[in-house]
């Protein structure tokens, strides 16, 4: 089942790569015009320079992406003259990040569509003078929806001239004060972001100090706000001052060193080191832990060793958060990493209870193997007592680790969570419990499922699916009659809740359960069978279920065949490979030479899933030559498109 968004992204990538290859022609009647708002043509250094890109078409058949690129340089290439005094900060500091992964299209008409472009989002102008700017854009394409669009047109706007004048220290100080008041009084992420962007664009030393202060103390503001402050650090003109301020903060033993602070210090250090060198731009992925720029990693690792040596001078939050950052960024050198890890483990285990539950959850989820220790069992129990609107993730991770460390001590928590009518405990987490059944949850599950079966609320449908799945995993046979009564008396039982009921029945009486499963599949029809079978086979799979799927594999209905093939590949034994291959051969013998007909009646879905099952099954593996042969054997368009994207 290939996700649609991947297809859209792939197609969009083709547009992006093709931009610039198809010049706009006068006959096309498509225009890109550049204007200044309110005819403003003079700007102080650091003041927002807004351009209005107006796009029109004299006839139908063209669409455009209407989202401004910002710092994600996707469609719009800015040409500015003279280049002296112009610093392309985004290209150098943020690196070649490819393209935006979000789009919004609108049809072009004779009424202009306006896209706002701020030069400051990618360019810093350091010298006063007169400049000319033009934009070459690839955001306009013939065609309609994104999936159907052709290679973009290349449109070049008219040139605009504007003046840049200095901003004095006094003026910048007033601007910083004004903008700071805007930020402090902002309500909502949009207002915060808009105000922070103004601060980010300023380039002098006064604003640099304020940016660093706000970067170090973000408070509870939105991620949009933080992103603008982060960008503002790299817009700052005095990189030496910026590095000095950031290093001072990092070396202050009372300041917690976060992941962001460590990586920004290393990045600014590298940029300063490369001033005047041929290699200016930050390579893509240079902030990644396992890869990226080798020199960046060397610089970062040197800071890590320095931070490790400062741990014994730190205390409280500063020590704990700095240790957490070190754990997340261990040096590449195994010797240096091992030395740091031992001290980090000691600190984080001893001070684990001082961390916020969200930080605890992250460490238990991502760094369990490094921190795993019996001393954390009491802390895991405290995490299970955490109450907040978003406590589910904390509970799931804590319970998962407690089940791994002390399953007997976890068992009461599992029972309590299942008995709680409001709980949405993760089924995969609690399924690791060794108990085949939990008699203690029987009565509670019957009562909960009965009440949910009476409710018409949409959320009750989701909750019913969850509770019946828990019954399929943990309930004993003693409530079989009760659940059967609920199942048979609920005429409008949600389709998505049936899998749990049926898996429970099959577990305790396979013959009756599978008979009811076939009745349910017949009732909902081929189009809705996917709402039942994947969940059912995840909860219960046996030789009998495998035989049922192999029988369904012989159907001529493409929905039935594709679902059966998919589920056999996920759950079936290696011996099922022969059944899949035989069905694929029969399908191709039937439809080869009738591709148009197969496309028209949806048979491509069956072909695609049969080949997918041959290539990606859990219990068998195709050889590389066989993989290529199968991918190239497609008859239908759906199948060909799918495996072309895979390659």
Tell me about this structure.
The protein is of the alpha+beta class and 647 residues long. Helices cover 55% and strands 9% of the residues. Strands 2, 5, 10, 12 and 13 form a 5-stranded mixed beta sheet that branches. It is globular and about 85 Å long.
Task: Give the SSE layout.
Elements: H1 4-18, E1 30-35, E2 42-44, E3 50-57, E4 62-65, E5 76-81, E6 86-87, H2 89-93, E7 105-107, E8 113-118, E9 124-125, E10 129-137, E11 140-142, E12 155-156, E13 160-165, H3 169-185, H4 189-201, H5 205-216, H6 223-235, H7 239-251, H8 259-273, H9 294-310, H10 316-328, H11 334-350, H12 357-366, H13 368-371, H14 377-384, H15 392-405, H16 407-419, H17 427-430, H18 442-454, H19 458-474, H20 480-489, H21 495-508, H22 510-524, H23 533-539, H24 543-553, H25 558-571, H26 577-591, H27 595-600, H28 603-616, H29 624-631, H30 637-646
Parallel strand pairs: 2-13
Antiparallel strand pairs: 1-3, 3-8, 4-7, 4-11, 5-10, 6-9, 10-12, 10-13
